[in-house]
Amino acid sequence: MPQTTNIAPLDLDSINHKLADTPATDIVRWARDQLGDRLILTSSFGAQAAVMLHLVTRVVPDMPILFIDTGFHFQETYAFMHKLAQRLDLNMKVYQSWMSPAHMVAIHGRLWEQGKDGLDKYDRIRKIEPMQRALRELEPKAWFAGLRRTQTDHRAQLRHVELQDHIYKVHPILTWTTKNVHEYLKAHDLPYHPLHDQGYPSIGDWHSTLRVGESDDDRAGRFQGLKQECGIHLPQTEAEDASRFSSGL
After folding, report:
1. CA Rg value for the chain
2. How confident is the model at residue 212, as a pLDDT?
């Protein structure tokens, strides 16, 4: 894993106390000013991706935007990515697994039909490995992500700034509600993912994303209900992974 360099260790308890009620844009500015260059933003170009893409690039216009292309995204997702990349003039960095989709299916079968173990292997091949490779090559000091506490059990325990695998992880909209997200999109005339209005509030790969009812949790249609996270936003070291297992994820 990449190591943070040229930066003094941060007092995360003190920082998170100070940032507790700080507006999202100011959290992005804090990260820019305190952590300097080599900042990245990861985006899955999901239902409300335009929020973080707009929020962060208004402060750091040339920030690399990292997209992990599984090869199994909806066609609408690829079109949405290109639309936003052009509109917001994004500095895109696209990473893929070394194993093509056809190669993976030939060797391992349709992993998404093999229960939780199959989904976990799928995520390691198609998402986690290219993500770890991207972090090694880009060597970011900080990684922005649009995680929100209301999304999963793991995310409910997060703070605005965390240390994950030796990289500072910054969550500017961590405390936002769905209403806050909708208000931001409307205020800046930003688009939703085209599948949002078809009953997909959370959008991943086509084979593991289902429509949900109005009363369901936003992520109820992901991973066949077998898990909440793909693994990209979970710790990869044994010490940091303790919280993952304690939460039952």
Report:
1. 17
2. 66
